[in-house]
Structures are given as structure tokens and as C-alpha cells.
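Q: Start with the shorter request: fold the first protein.
A: Done. Sequence, then structure:
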Amino acid sequence: MSDRLPKERSPEPVTVDSMASDLRALGVESGETLLVHGSLSELGWVCGGAPAVVDALQRVVVEDGTIVMPTHSPGNRNPADMQHPPVPEAWYETVREQMPAYRPDVTPTQGMGAIAECFRSYPGVLRSDHPQHSFAAWGAAAAFVTDDHALSHSLGDESPLARVYDLDGRVLFLGTTHATNTSLHLAEYRADLDLETATRESAILVDREREWVQWSDIEFTDEDFDECGEAFERDRPEAVVSGTVGVGDATLLSQPKLVDFAVEWFEQNR
């Protein structure tokens, strides 16, 4: 996701009021747990930009519910794995020695879009401790979702994704698709797949001191997420609602039903 110009001009400005109305019409409910993937540029001309989207979500879900967003920072990684742009090998040791440690309150998101970057610094929002695959949450279950995010198997059963599953949460796409649907990574961990593992590296704080650490994780991929998501929407239409927020396509779906479906789909199709 990126911060581009709006895809089209709306007949009227997209406002907090109009987005809140659109979210309720889609079926978003107060008190629920909602994992949001959003692209600001897809929603039209939003009056106030990303804060207006966050305000609308909070107005509808209210503090009795919980809003969750991925706030990943993949740039804090092994310099040998950096590709956009690649890092000269002669720089590797300097990067490992000098990369600032991940800090939930300070480290910006990367590739998550303007809405998630705005949300992470909102009052009352908590952010998990993973240096590459953090999630932020606001509301009644924010601590439950973000606490104890495991370093290894970062999108598996000791991650915020699994806590959203435990809460019977739903996934909301605001101008996005299954291509960036992080919940499908949870299904990769749970599926009986012969996945390779890899060593990951990041700078983190350990007892307030910066350390460069390594851990093991699976080699996950999102290359077939669109195909899997489309199959889910065909086979489980009762678990999916589609509509619009602003001028952008919006989809609301059951995260547990999606993950359970994807476990079987991956086992049959990978």
C-alpha cells in the first residue's frame, strides 16, 4: 500500500460521518474485534486523511470493541536480505552494528499505508514487541492482542493474529484485497505443510540495551493469497459481506472461518 492520490473524486467529500455510516451499513458492529487492512488512496477524497478513517473506525467499534492493524517494520532485518534496494556486502557489519533497535512507540511502519502509520501513534493504542511483524491495537482487548508476541514464528499461534482468532474477530478490507491479508499467514503455520525455515535477524532492546538478535521462522509466502481468498469467498459466502466505504471497495469477513478454510486449502493446493 502507498500514499497515492485518491483513485477518483467522490461526489462529496468522504468524512468521518459518512465513513461511520458506510461502516455500519457494511455490518461493522460496536464491541466487535476488527482486524483492518486499509488503503487511504482507495477511499476517495477523505476530509482529514488517515486520522478521519481512524476516527470513523473508533466511533463505530467503540472502546468496548477492539481495532487491530498490522504495523510491520520489515526494514529492521538481516542486511543480506535487503533487496529494495540491495545493500552492498561491505555494509553488512555496519548495518548489524548501527541499525536502531525496534521501539514500539518510535519505529515507523513500512509498506503498511497511511492509515496504519497514523493508527499506531493514536492515544490508547498498544503495539506488540516484534521488530518486523508488529501489530497495534486499541480498545477493550488491546493488551490481550498485543502482549507476548513471540519472536520466533512471528505470525503463528503466539502472535496477535491468533489472538484475533481467539476473539472470533473479523477482517475488514478498506480498498485492499486478500493479497495483503495477514491472517492467511496464521493458516500457513497451522497447515500440515513441509515449509522450510530460515534465520531472521533484527535489532531489539533487551533490558533497555540494544542487541542484534537471531531467531528461526518459517519461509512463509503470500503468492497464492489472492487465489485462496477468492476460493474462500466462493465457498463460504455466508462469512463475507461486501460494500463500499467512501468510493472504495470494502469487505468484511470472519477471520476464524477464513483461517480454518485456508488451512485445508493450503494443504490441498500447495
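Q: Next, the second protein, separately.
A: Sequence, then structure:
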Amino acid sequence: MSLINDDLQQLLLNYCEPEPELLQQIDRETQLKVLMPRMLSGHYQGRVLSMLSKMTSPRRILEIGTFTGYATICLAEGLTEDGMLYTLDINEELEDMVRRNFAASAYNEQISYILGDANQTLQTLEESFDLVFIDADKKNNGTYYDMVFDRVRKGGLIIVDNVLWSGKVLNNNPDKDTKNITTFNDKIAADERVEKLILPVRDGLFIIRKK
């Protein structure tokens, strides 16, 4: 999914913060035991998410799409002392692994892990958010964006993953999934309520700041 070659990727890793031991363990276990392990954010993207979180010092974070909890822990690194992160996922099969991962972290008490359809569970949260990370079913990116927008504070961030779709967004005859990605990207580009840019990190991170 990386858009750059392996040598340059290794150089980037050489110049970023080291990957914490717990996250190394989560990465290894995910690679060994979980279908589609490429969905995990990994070392470099994880440090990007951690840096963005630390720069904003969020009191409330929302993550849509937990997977095995790697990105969750990265985002939690920037929480204020009284902060809380809500992470929503539909995959009950990973629950035991995810809860173990959170319990092994320093942020277990600050993470609320909620299982179910995000279209429904999100409506049960009576919170406003400083940072939102959307990394779930891509066809619903626009739906999730619309659902959370009014609940993001002025100056808050919405980060959306996989917006370059392994470079397929350049295809002249895109498939249905790629069209969904492009439709979302165009939606954000036209949204004058936000400042935005895409970072070519791994599979593309859309960084969206609410004006």
C-alpha cells in the first residue's frame, strides 16, 4: 500500500521516532493471526498519527474503525490527562485481541471500545471531538464525515485514511471502490468549511481542519 519504494521507506523510518515495544507486538500478532493485516497503520503512519495528536492535545478523540487497536494507541498518546478516546468497530471476532492490546497500554482507562455498526453507535455518543480518525468501510467515508462534522470543534481535525487507494485514484477506468474514494475526495475538495491537504503517507491521509 506504500506509495514509495522500500529503500526510501526505510530511510523515513530511520529518521522518525522508534516504534514502541507494545506496538511492535501488536504488529507482529496482527501479521500472524488476522486476515488482511495490511489494514494496520504500521510504524511510520502510526508515528504520524501520534504526532498530529500530540500537536493538537485533544481532550476527545473519535476513531471509526479500530481493527487491532494499533492506530488507537498511537492517537491516544496525545490525549490530555482527562482525555477520552472513543473507538468504534463492527468486528466482534477481534474483540478479545483488541481488549488485550488496550489493557497492555498506558491508555486503557482512557479508551472506550464500542462494538456495533458505527452508523448507529455514533449516534449514542453525546460528545464533541477535537480529533476524528476515519478508517473503516470506505464506501461510507462521506456518511461518517457528515455525521461527525457538526460535532468537531472549530480548529479540530478530521483525518481520513486510504484516500489514494494504492494509486488507483489515477486510473482512467476506475472500479466501484475507487470511484467511491474519488467521490469522497472531491467532496472534501469542494467543502469551503475546511482547510485540507492529502499527505502521501502509506495509502494517503486526508488531513482536514475545520475553520
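Q: Describe the second briefly.
A: The CA atoms of residues 16 and 130 lie 25 Å apart. The two ends are 31 Å apart (CA to CA).
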